[in-house]
Specification:
The structure is a single chain. The protein has one domain: STAS domain (Transcription Regulator spoIIAA). With about 120 residues, it is α/β, with parallel strands linked by helices. The radius of gyration is 13 Å and the shape is globular. It has helices at about 35-45, 65-80, 90-100, 110-120, and strands spanning about 10-15, 20-30, 50-60, 85, 105-110. Strand 1 and strand 2 (about 20-30) form a beta hairpin. Belongs to the anti-sigma-factor antagonist family.
Length: about 120
């Protein structure tokens, strides 16, 4: 990552045409959280996506705006009948999710590899 304050959301790949992976890098804060919302909207505007995996393993910082963007993603996925899975949640993100109770509503897996079976079945 060249600029640690830049968050780049990339829809990186399709898995068997049934899942999309959005990888989030850098800072997911009030300046950048809208990028995640935009990427989720872009993915869900296309053909039906049964599973959307949001990989947070390379997020350096996440504030309440970032958590809000994840809740937005969850709502949008539920409205689209898409299963949202978060991967790579750790450190401060994990603590905030536990404190706010969000850890109970998100399907979380340690990494993308562990999340892929949900896309297959």
């Amino acid at each position: 990552m060249d600029d640690p304050e830049e968050m780049v959301c990339v829809v990186s790949m399709s898995v068997d045409g049934r899942a999309w992976i959005v990888q989030v890098h850098g800072f997911m804060d009030f300046r950048h959280a809208a990028l995640l919302r935009e990427q989720v909207d872009a993915v869900l505007r296309g053909a039906h996506v049964p599973v959307l995996i949001v990989d947070l393993s390379t997020v350096a910082f996440c504030d309440s705006s970032g958590l809000s963007a994840l809740v937005y993603a969850l709502r949008r996925c539920r409205n689209a009948s898409t299963h949202l899975i978060l991967t790579g949640v750790r450190g401060t993100q994990e603590r905030w999710m536990t404190i706010t109770g969000l850890s109970r509503i998100f399907d979380r897996r340690p990494n993308v590899t562990d999340a892929l079976p949900a896309a297959a079945g």
